[in-house]
Each structure stands twice: as structure tokens, then as C-alpha cells.
Design a protein that fits this description.
By secondary structure, the chain is an alpha/beta fold. Strands 3, 4, 5, 6, 7, 14 and 15 form a 7-stranded mixed beta sheet that branches. A 6-stranded parallel beta sheet has the order 10-9-8-11-12-13, sandwiched between helices. The protein has a two-stranded antiparallel sheet with strand order 1-2. Helix 5 links the parallel strand 9 and strand 10. The two termini are about 15 Å apart. Helix content is about 20%, strand content about 25%. The chain is built from 9 helices and 15 strands. Helix 3 packs across helix 4. The structure holds NADP nicotinamide-adenine-dinucleotide phosphate (NAP).
Length: about 325
């Protein structure tokens, strides 16, 4: 490898996991406001494979225009290699983690030995966890934080005209659907931290995992239909989402809230009749919020679970694992 190139996973066209190639790429140049990170681990998120496929399920107007070759990956943990002159707050050798440039696409990204990241997207890595665990946190943690605790930005919401508003959780009953996945298992712990009673919905194999993380009740959706057996809930965070999310309206009390993570909600009239606040949002990079999540990780208040790890070169296999579903925690690529 020359002094100016690195190993990266790149793709030259949209498609299935087979379009991911482990190859040489230029080390990204550092721009104003950026930090060059030697990546140690990269967390995998659903938007990685949506982008790999070209967001083919979105209306054409919404599909991103990208330049190939494309490098995927927002969630990194690593060590600062260089810092732009105008950046304060990070030094060479610092261990950092972050969700880089999400939701924008096309610039330096994470499936690589180096990433040039906006300093504002990064936080110091919690000392008590390793790079694999830190890389597993950013998108899942920030999604939980921005939906449940504080939105933290004023950017337009692509899913609805108004900004998303978290609701108070102290003493409330919160149902989390898809509770064992990346977002679900962290959101569960944030809701417990805020003083909620949490009902976790997942397939049966995740029960002991979710009870260990603090779930007060567990519903195996392969045996029971949650909306048939639950009522009077204050908030449903639906980490599965999509058109079926409206079925949770009948689990909620009047004045309750439904937060689907994935678009497709189509029962606005029914929600209005029931007095239920339905809201979604697009997670956005935020280093300051990540620092707060880092403090919870250091304190052991929030733990992140690793479903599986793969070497960077095997990103294709990691995407295949992701497509198999039933993920418990996060899938992470090890770079160093
Ligand atoms: N709005 C945003 O900004 C934002 C941000 C992050 C993620 N998301 C979206 O949120 C969704 C979840 O993301 P993630 O990273 O948590 O995904 P993930 O890690 O793949 O987890 C999904 C979980 O859902 C469970 N599940 C699947 N079908 C289910 C069902 N019918 N009922 C209950 N649970 C079910 C799966 O396990 P079991 O089936 O074994 O229980 C798995 O644990 C994705 O669609 C993602 O695109 C949106």
C-alpha cells in the first residue's frame, strides 16, 4: 500500500452485497472543520444497505444522486490521526467515535482505514468500552436520543411538516417494537433511564437479553399479537415501522404517542380521532449528544450488545448477516 492509499470497501454500482469490493482507495483529504480518523471499527446500519441498493424503494425524486466509487458507512470508532487547523477540542491520538455526515451521502465515509469526519459529528470514545462497542453506538444511540430525549437540531423534517417532539417518559408505559435490534435495545435502556415502564416486543430468542437490559414485560410477537393483548400504553416506539405501524394505535391511551422509525404510517384520521400524536424524524449527526450517550455508556447505564463482527474485508458477509434479520444488538466491522 502506498503512503497515500488505504484499504476500503467500495462499490462501483448499486446492487446486492456482491457490489462491495475490498480495494485500494485514496486516503481522504482533510478539509476545514474536519478530523482525520484512523478507523478501528465500523458499525453497520440499515441505511448502509439502503444506499448500497440506491434507496430503490424510495420514490425516484428522493433517491440520492451519488458518484461512484462509493464508500458506505456512517458509524466509526478510531483514533485521531490529524486535525484541521481550525478544529478545537480534538488532538492527535484521541480515541473518538461518531456518526459521520448522516444523512448526507457521497463524501468520505466509514468502511475504510481512514475517514475525514466533521469534528462536530465526533465525541471522545467512552474509556470503558472498546472500539467495536463504540462503533456500534452512534446511529442507534442518536436515534434513540433524538426520538425519546431531545431532537437537538432545527433542520427540516423530511417525514412531516413539523419538528419531532419527544414526550415525557417518567412514570409512563412505553412499548418498544423491534426491541432487540440496534435502535430498540438502546431505546429500551434510555426509556428505563428516564423512569418508564418498558414493554419489549421481539421474537422469543431475545427474551432473556431484553430482560437483562431492563425490560419490565416481554412479548414474543411470534406467539402473541401485541396489539391484541396490550392497552393503555403512553408511547409506542416502533423500530419496525412501515405501513403496519398503525396497528399500534389501539394499544395507546388517548393523548398517547406513536413514533414509527420507518416511513409508511397511513392512518392519520384514526390517530386524530383517538387523540394520538404520531411523529417520526430523520436521525442526524450530533457529536454533543453522542458525548452525553458516552457518559451513560461509561456509567454502565446503557450497554451496547454486539450481534456479530466481521473483518472489514468481509463487509459483504456482514451485509448478508444483516439481511438475515433477527439481529440482537449490532453488527460491526473490525478494521484494525
Ligand atoms: N428514522 C430514522 O432516522 C431511523 C434511524 C435508525 C433506524 N431507522 C430504521 O429503524 C429500523 C430499525 O433499525 P435497527 O438498526 O434497529 O435495525 P435492526 O438492528 O436490523 O433491528 C431490527 C429488529 O427488529 C426485529 N423485528 C423484525 N421484525 C419484527 C416484527 N415483525 N416485530 C417485532 N420485531 C421485529 C428484529 O429481530 P426479531 O425479529 O428477532 O425480534 C431485529 O432485532 C430500520 O427500518 C431502520 O431503517 C430509522
Amino acid at each position: 500500500m502506498s503512503a497515500y492509499t488505504m484499504k476500503a470497501i467500495r462499490q462501483h454500482e448499486f446492487g446486492g452485497p456482491e457490489v462491495l469490493h475490498y480495494e485500494e482507495a485514496p486516503i481522504p483529504e482533510l478539509k476545514t472543520g474536519e478530523v482525520l480518523v484512523r478507523v478501528h471499527a465500523v458499525g453497520i446500519n440499515p441505511p448502509d444497505w439502503y444506499l448500497r441498493e440506491g434507496y430503490k424503494d424510495l420514490p425516484p425524486d428522493w433517491q440520492p444522486v451519488v458518484e461512484f466509487p462509493l464508500i458506505l458507512g456512517s458509524d466509526v470508532s478510531g483514533v485521531v490521526e490529524a486535525v484541521a487547523e481550525d478544529v478545537l477540542g480534538f488532538s492527535i491520538g484521541d480515541e473518538v467515535f461518531g456518526m459521520v455526515r448522516f444523512p448526507s451521502t457521497g463524501e468520505s465515509m466509514g468502511y475504510a482505514e481512514y475517514v475525514a469526519a466533521p469534528a462536530s459529528d465526533l465525541a471522545l470514545k467512552p474509556a470503558g468500552i472498546d472500539h467495536v462497542h463504540a462503533a456500534a453506538v452512534p446511529m442507534a444511540g442518536l436515534t434513540g436520543w433524538q426520538f425519546l430525549i431531545e431532537l437537538g437540531h432545527t433542520e427540516a423534517n423530511p417525514f412531516q411538516p413539523e419538528a419531532h417532539r419527544p414526550v415525557p417518559l417518567q412514570g409512563k408505559t412505553v412499548l418498544i417494537n423491534g426491541a432487540a435490534g440496534g435502535v430498540g435495545h438502546i431505546a429500551l435502556q434510555l426509556a428505563k433511564w428516564q423512569g418508564a415502564h418498558v414493554i419489549a416486543v421481539a421474537s422469543g430468542k431475545h427474551e432473556s437479553f431484553l430482560r437483562m437490559l431492563g425490560a419490565d414485560e416481554f412479548i414474543d410477537y411470534t406467539k402473541n399479537t401485541p396489539e391484541d393483548i396490550v392497552s393503555n400504553v403512553d408511547l409506542v416506539l416502533d423500530a419496525v415501522g412501515g405501513p403496519a405501524t398503525g396497528r399500534f394505535l389501539r394499544t395507546l391511551k388517548q393523548g398517547g404517542a406513536l413514533f414509527p422509525l420507518f416511513m409508511g404510517f397511513a392512518d392519520a384520521d384514526e390517530a386524530a380521532n383517538l387523540g394520538i400524536y404520531v411523529s417520526s424524524a430523520q436521525v442526524r449527526s450530533n457529536g454533543l449528544q453522542l458525548a452525553e450517550i458516552g457518559r451513560l455508556l461509561d456509567a454502565g447505564t446503557v450497554r451496547v450488545a454486539i450481534d456479530s463482527t466481521f473483518p472489514l474485508a468481509d463487509a459483504r458477509m456482514a451485509h448478508e448477516r444483516s439481511a438475515d434479520g433477527h439481529i440482537q444488538g449490532k453488527i460491526v466491522l473490525k478494521v484494525v
